[in-house]
Amino acid sequence: MNHTEACIALNMIPQMGPVRLRKLLEVFGQPERVLGAARDKLAAVEGIGRELATGLARWEDHVDLPAELARMQQANVSAVTPADPLYPRMLGKIHDPPIVLYVWGELTEKDGHGIGIVGSRQISHYGTECAKKFGYQLAYAGLTVYSGLARGIDTAAHLGALAAKGRTVAVMGGGLSEIYPSENFALAEKIVAGNGALISEFSMTVQPDRQTFPMRNRIISGASYGVLVVEAGVKSGALHSANSAAEQGRTVFAVPGPIDRPGCIGSNRLIQQGAKLVMDAADILDDLPGLFAPADLPPASEPRPAPDNLSPEEKRVFESVGDRETHIDVVIRQSGLPTGTVSSTLFALELKRVVKQLPGKFFVKLS
What we know:
The chain is of the alpha/beta class. Helix content is 41%, strand content 13%. The protein is built from 16 helices and twelve strands. The strands form two sheets. A nine-stranded mixed β-sheet has the order 1-2-6-5-4-3-7-8-9, with helices on both faces. A three-stranded antiparallel β-sheet has the order 10-12-11. Strand 3 (114-118), helix 7 (125-140) and strand 4 form a beta-alpha-beta unit. Helix 7 packs parallel to helix 8 (153-163), helix 14 crosses helix 15 and helix 14 packs across helix 16. The radius of gyration is 24 Å and the shape is elongated. The relative contact order is 0.09.
C-alpha cells in the first residue's frame, strides 16, 4: 500500500473526519503507520477513544480499498494528498484540510491561486450576468475560479471562466461516481475537457446531503484567496461559504444588489457586516498586490450587436431595451411606438435571439 492509497483508506473509515485525521498524523506521522497502529496506541490520541480506535485497528472490515481503487480507475479519477505538489496550496493551510482529494480532470500548480465564486441557486438575470462577468475576468487575469457546480451562480461562474479559456475547479458535495446536479453533467465534462477539474474529498459513492455541502464549502473558501458572493438570499448556503472564508482568514467580497430583491438580502447584509463591495474584478485584484495586474483586465463581454436585417421598428425597439432589465413600459415610452407594436416587435426580437423576456414583463439584450 502506498501513501495515497493509505490516505484513501483512512478517509473512508466511518466517523473519521479531517480534524481527527490531523491529530492522528501528528502522532504517527504517516497514514500507513496509522493503519498499522495498535488499538491502545490509537485510543490514546486526543479525540479518538476506544470505539473509534477499534474501528481503525479493524479498518479492513469497514473499507473495501480494492473496490474503491477500481471505481476510481473506471471513472478516470485520480487522487492527490497534501504531500502532492498539485494539492491546492492555500487549502493545505486551513485548520481541517482534506487528507485526500479525488480529482476528475487535472489540477495544476496554477490552481494555488484561486478565488471562490458562490451564490444562490435561484437567481435573477442580473446575478447570472454578474457571475459570468466575474468568472470571465478573474479567469482571464490568471486566477482559478473555484465554485460548486450547483445551479445558478455556480454554473454561471464556471461558464464565465470557460469562456475566458481560463482555469475553473468545481468542488463537489458528494462522490464523483454520480455528478450532482445531474443536469450539469455536460458542464462537468466541459470543465474536465477544457481547463479544469472536478474535485471531492468524499469517496466515490458518497451521496450529497445537508452535512456534506457545508464541508464542501470550506474547500471552496480554503483553496482560495477569498470568496465572492454574487447574489444570495438570507438563507442561502453561499453564506456558509462566506462564514468559512472569514474563519479561515480569507477576504469576503460581495456584489451589491437591489435592496428590494429578496435574493440579494444575504449578500447585501454581508457588505453591511464588512465584506468588500465589488463592482468589477479589478476590485478583487486590488487586494492581491504583486500577483495580478488590474490594468490587464479585459472588459466585460460586449453586448451582442443587432443583426443587420432588423427593420426600422425592430431597431428602434431594440435600442430602447437596456443592457440590464428594462420593463416593457420603459421600452414603450423610449421608443415612442404604440403598445401593440412594441409587444409584437419584442416577440420578433426574441425569435431572433437578440432580446430575452424576464419575469414581470422585463426585457434585456442578450450578450
